[in-house]
Design goal:
The structure holds three protein chains of three kinds. By secondary structure, chain B is α/β, with parallel strands linked by helices. Chain B has 16 helices and 23 strands. In chain B, the strands form five sheets. In chain B, strands 13, 16, 19, 20, 21, 22 and 23 form a seven-stranded mixed sheet that branches. Classes of the chains: A mainly alpha, B alpha/beta, C mainly alpha. The interface between A and C is large, with 46 and 48 residues.
């Protein structure tokens, strides 16, 4: 008796929904084993990791606060992934957005004008878009692979940030620490809920989710990009512009990441630091996949991923487990999803070894 | 009394069932040593499946295979080769970037140098000239087929299976192939010849097993049968009467190509040289020729997938169109049915309604950037109805349709746009007789209402049936289009090998390929 | 001055070595049609495994072996997902990088402050006395010599053996290779594991020879540069070698900037390798034809017999 993979005539609708759930369960199970191996009591550890962080209102606010950039970026990236445009450099675009917004905050420090924040938001979006325009240009003009270009630019962005906080943007009164001045009141987002750090970035994420949903399900442009990703020859046949798709995908992704960057420096950070993101740009890629490249799924996946971040922090404090356990879980979640996705398109069949051919009685 | 000859290959009760269809139903077959045996049937009758079972690519659900009288189990191609069976598939499994000898060495044991000598020997002996040192991507389709055959012959098979071998050959090459096969048969090798071409089978084969819908409908000597009787066994009724288009009054020039020369944009592609063509309203112009001679390249220029300079090189409905992309050309009245259906003509995982958006979007399906879903579904439903597409509805995924039904939908989608110019590439390739006849009739109907139609096809019979004028594409050059009534299959067949009429002879690539 | 040149060139060789290993490994993997973007993750796993193995056992050789095994093991994970479970290769490779980065950081917690006496150069008797070439090429540590051997073996394998022919055939058309009777999936697994092992050795080299220590993310993007190198080299081993040395030179330039009197911010110099990668990528990709002709035609596409 052998097992054989057989292609399904239609992708299984049931599995499309079940797959992320299965992946999450598998990850939890792996977590169980992991904590056991670390000498922790697995039940308590899982509780600390997954339940405790959201058991207070402040915890929920933190969940939303961390989910916002993840969802924001993932929505932007998804539009590209569906079109086979692989923007892996959202982290760098986020950094550029943060830098651009910070430049304004520093330049106009002390002003009480209500225009500063919107200007910072605009600057952040433009900064992210500009950084993403580079791979767009290089791909459409020179066929350079955008995976590698966006990634390389991420390293360059990090180095640029390092240069800026060590030099031109460093706080002169900061005792030589690599950080900018603390932004003034008018350069920081207000808290939406007293006692929490929740700010308008959550609204941005929500708006982006809605916009992405409309774009992907209802617009002709969204259709064109989908075709470009599913069947590039058909897109050519239909006359859909490939370079148009590439530019749209990268610019939207860059804008979203840049906006998330503003959300960080004008939000929880309140200044420009050598690191402005705990890897949101990369985690957003996982969010996009776990969310099945669908705007609504991404919202859910963003919350899950945010929980992984919070859990990592909590586990580090309460259980003395290294913070790296967060990326472990993230990678594991993506692995499990990719694995269980198989069953959307294929099913397992038992094949009985046919010994009757050949005419044995 | 003479003892009965033990068949080289005997099949008893071979059955194969797939989820959606019974491909083979209790098939019996006998092939004697040295016999050329045809498996005849239209597309979809189960010939390919049967042959894959014999060659070990597919496992049958029931039945028995006997070789020289003894039962055998063939569950891999390797096992088939060990038994003594060789197979030349319709779609070659060759590696383009490797040389002929390297390709063969992947399948046949032996050192490269020794193999090269044997290849040269064999190819001489059987009239299949190939140069072992040439990389495969430089070979024509006919030459590649020879490589496949030589590869089989190097393993001294006792049964050679050929799956639709002549679908890629010009008429002269077919004769040469037949010569080789007769020589092999005379030496004792049995040959299993899969085809749906009645005339060839009647001229070549000693015996024929006819399949229809997975069952054997007759085992005959094709030389003693008429085309009608074979056809009746093949499709269950008489051949549909050929459509005789009435000559219609030519009016305006709708599509004009003048002296187009274009380098290939693909290392394995064909360069177009000095192509001139004009298609008028109310006529069907056909382009004959074996695939790979520039037809694909020409079609991408006409459809707008590839832009050309100067813009006047291609004129559409009187205006220069060289720089217009596909959407602008469609707005001017162009429609195109490409030869690749899934993947180019349609997006496989997406519904029929959504696939309508691919080319018919300009029919009111998009408003202010938003898709009008109701319109797309209405269009798709209309197409399904008027073109007899067997599908569950506008929401059926394109890839869930059979080849024939998908082609009906694609042709319908283009026709419903009421184009002024319709381009069609390989309209009935791989379709069953019913669907093929339907599509040909619709093309003629379009012509009768004034559409200018350009058809590219490998099937000469089809072109002679529906076209008013016919031209041949060879080596990137196009012959002038001549009225069908003033030429013959034989003459066009000659042109297909590069023997153009004087004045258009191509010195570079001329001669037998 | 010649001392400086000598130091620069010798440094180029040492800096290029991890790229040579990782890129050659990825070359073989990609030749079979498999796109494994998880090189960075595999290198990090190799680095931590090698460091842990070396510090625990006291044997550098054992450390390197551990590195190779860790790299191959990580690659096996990729293989299961991408080759058996037919997952999207790009996404799987990314997942592998994220996972490998996380797992190596996790496991490496306890090793951050440990010290290790790294691999010492071995002078080739006689040859190491040649002026300039001697110190540059013949007074390097064992892994550098191994990297040059790896290049030789890879080249010979690909172009002079039946195995290499089969590999190239599988990469060009797995359907045809399957039709001819080759076990495509198995061959791809072997290529992937080999690539992983070499990536592991590359990481091991970093942790055990180049800068004997362990730090999170110590590969700093070299895995990605290796992937870019394979494209830049249009999938030919000799060009991979050349490209690796080019990038090695770029890295060394940054380290010796002061001695060379370059008054540029250190971050700009650090950014050079990444900027250079983009530049060469653009140069090579400009001509779409070159890529078409040289890239394994089935690169990145999942293969399932019977589909």
């Amino acid at each position: 008796m052998r097992l054989r993979l057989e292609s399904r005539p239609e992708p299984s609708q049931a599995m499309l929904v079940a797959s992320p759930v299965i992946a999450t369960s598998l990850t939890l199970a792996a977590g169980f084993v992991l904590f056991l191996a670390l000498g922790q009591r697995p039940g308590a550890a899982l509780h600390t990791f997954f339940v405790a962080p959201v058991s207070t209102w402040n915890g929920v606010a933190e969940l939303l606060l961390k989910a916002a950039p993840l969802v924001l970026i993932a929505q932007g990236l998804t539009i590209g992934f569906r079109a086979n445009v692989w923007n892996i450099g959202a982290e760098g675009q986020l950094t550029l957005g943060a830098i651009a917004a910070s430049a304004l905050a520093i330049r106009f420090d002390g002003t009480t004008s209500g225009w500063l924040l919107p200007a910072m938001v605009a600057a952040g979006i433009l900064g992210g878009m500009a950084w993403a325009a580079i791979p767009a240009y290089l791909r459409t003009r020179f066929h350079a692979n955008e995976i590698l270009v966006t990634l390389m630019l991420t390293y360059v962005a990090a180095l640029a940030l390092s240069y800026l906080v060590h030099g031109p943007m460093r706080d002169p009164q900061g005792l030589n620490f690599p950080q900018s001045i603390l932004f003034g009141e008018s350069a920081v987002f207000a808290n939406l809920l007293a006692g929490t750090r929740l700010n308008v970035s959550v609204v941005f994420a929500l708006l982006m989710t809605i916009a992405a949903w409309v774009f992907v399900t209802r617009t002709f442009a969204g259709y064109q990009m989908l075709v470009g990703g599913l069947a590039p020859l058909a897109a050519r046949y239909a006359g859909f512009s490939e370079s148009g798709a590439v530019w749209t995908a990268l610019l939207i992704g860059g804008a979203a990441a840049g906006l998330a960057g503003v959300g960080e420096v004008a939000g929880p950070l309140g200044q420009l630091l050598p690191t402005v993101s705990p890897g949101y740009g990369f985690a957003a890629i996982i969010v996009a996949f776990v969310g099945r490249l669908h705007p609504l799924g991404i919202a859910a996946a963003g919350l899950l991923m945010s929980l992984l971040y919070l859990g990592g922090e909590a586990a580090q404090i309460a259980l003395q487990v290294p913070y790296a356990v967060t990326s472990l879980f993230q990678g594991l979640l993506l692995f499990c999803l990719l694995g269980s996705d198989l069953f959307v398109f294929y099913r397992v069949r038992r094949v009985h070894h046919r010994s009757s051919i050949g005419g044995r009685p | 009394m003479q003892a009965p000859i033990v068949p080289r290959l005997a099949l008893r009760g071979i059955t194969k069932v797939y989820p959606s269809v019974v491909a083979n139903d209790s098939i019996d077959l006998d092939v004697a040593p040295g016999e050329i045996h045809a498996i005849l049937g239209e597309n979809g009758a189960g010939k390919s499946t049967l042959v894959k079972i014999i060659y070990g690519v597919v496992r049958a659900d029931a039945g028995e295979i006997r070789w020289d009288g003894r039962p055998v189990i063939i569950n891999t191609p390797g096992a088939a080769r060990q038994v003594g069976i060789g197979m030349v598939f319709q779609h070659f499994s060759l590696f383009e970037t490797l040389t002929v000898a390297e390709n063969i060495s992947l399948a046949v044991p032996g050192a490269l140098r020794e193999l090269s000598t044997r290849i040269a020997e064999l190819s001489q002996r059987y009239g299949l000239p190939v140069d072992p040192r040439r990389p495969v991507h430089t070979l024509s389709v006919g030459e590649r087929q020879r490589v496949e055959i030589v590869r089989c012959l190097l393993q001294a098979p006792k049964l050679l299976i050929l799956d639709e071998p002549t679908s890629v050959l010009p008429p002269l090459a077919v004769d040469r192939l037949f010569g080789t096969l007769r020589q092999l048969a005379a030496e004792g090798c049995s040959i299993l010849y899969i085809s749906h071409k009645l005339e060839e089978i009647q001229s070549l084969c000693h015996a024929a097993t006819v399949l229809r819908a997975g069952r054997v409908t007759g085992t005959v000597d094709p030389r003693r049968e008429s085309a009608q009787s074979l056809a009746r066994m093949m499709i269950g009724k008489d051949l549909p009467a050929a459509v005789h288009p009435e000559p219609s009054v030519e009016r305006e020039e709708r599509l004009v190509v003048s002296g187009l020369t274009l380098p290939a944009d693909d290392p394995f592609g064909t360069r177009l040289t000095d192509v001139t063509l004009s298609v008028h309203s109310g006529e069907i112009v056909g382009i004959a020729g074996v695939s790979g001679n520039g037809q694909k390249e020409l079609m991408t220029v006409l459809s707008g997938e590839r832009l050309v300079e100067p813009p006047e090189a291609v004129r559409l409905c009187g205006a220069p169109a060289g720089r217009l992309g596909p959407r602008l050309r469609r707005a001017r009245g162009l429609a195109f049915v490409p030869e690749e259906r899934l993947g180019r003509g349609a997006v496989p995982p997406v519904t029929l309604a959504e696939n309508a958006l691919l080319t018919a979007a300009h029919l009111d399906m998009v408003q202010s950037g938003f898709v009008r879903v109701a319109q797309t579904r209405a269009f798709a439903a209309r197409c399904i109805r008027e073109f007899d597409v067997k599908a569950s509805g506008p929401d059926a995924a394109a890839r869930s349709l059979s080849g024939g039904n998908l082609q009906r939908y694609l042709v319908g989608r283009e026709i419903l746009q009421q184009p002024k110019v319709l381009l069609v590439s390989q309209p009935t390739w791989g379709l069953d007789v019913g669907a093929a006849a339907f599509i040909r009739q619709r093309l003629v109907d379009m012509r009768n209402t004034g559409t200018a139609i350009l058809v590219v096809s490998e099937e000469l019979e089809e072109l002679f049936e529906i076209c008013d004028r016919i031209a041949v594409m060879f080596g990137g050059r196009l012959t002038p289009a001549v009225p069908v009534s003033k030429t013959s299959v034989a003459e066009i067949g000659e042109w297909m090998t590069g023997l153009f009429p004087a004045g258009r002879a191509d010195a570079g690539a001329g001669g037998q390929r | 001055m010649s001392d400086l040149l000598s130091a620069l060139l010798a440094g180029t060789v040492t800096a290029a070595t991890p790229l040579v290993f990782a890129a050659l490994g990825e070359l073989i993997t990609e030749k079979s049609g498999v796109l494994n973007l998880g090189v960075e993750g595999m290198m990090l796993m190799g680095a931590i495994a090698a460091f842990a193995g070396a510090t625990t056992s006291g044997s550098l050789v054992l450390g390197v072996v551990c590195g190779a095994l860790a790299g191959a093991g990580t690659a096996a994970l990729f293989g299961v997902l991408a080759l058996t479970l037919l997952a999207n290769q790009v996404a799987t490779g990314l997942a592998l990088t994220i996972f490998g980065t996380g797992l190596s950081a996790f496991v490496g917690q306890g090793y951050v402050s440990l010290t290790l006496i790294g691999m010492q150069p071995i002078a080739v008797p006689g040859l190491s006395r040649i002026p300039l070439l001697g110190p540059v090429l013949f007074t390097q540590n064992a892994l550098v010599y191994l990297s040059l051997m790896a290049f030789g073996v890879t080249h010979w394998f690909l172009y002079r053996t039946k195995g290499g022919l089969v590999l190239r055939a599988v990469g060009e058309s797995p359907e045809s290779a399957h039709a001819v009777g080759y076990k495509v999936i198995r061959i791809r697994y072997l290529a992937t594991l080999f690539g992983g092992a070499l990536a592991g050795v590359a990481g091991a080299y970093l942790a055990v020879a180049y800068t004997p220590m362990w730090v999170e993310h110590m590969t700093a993007g070299r895995g990605w540069i290796a992937v870019a190198l394979v494209v830049f080299a249009t999938w030919r081993p000799e060009r991979v070698l050349a490209g690796a040395y080019l990038f090695g030179g770029m890295t060394i330039l940054q380290l010796h900037a002061q001695a060379l009197g370059l008054a540029v911010p250190s971050q700009l110099l650090s950014a050079l390798p990444y900027l250079a990668t983009i530049a060469v990528l653009v140069l090579i990709s400009r001509d779409a034809q070159t890529i078409r002709v040289n890239a394994p035609a089935s690169l990145g596409k999942p293969f399932h017999p019977g589909d």
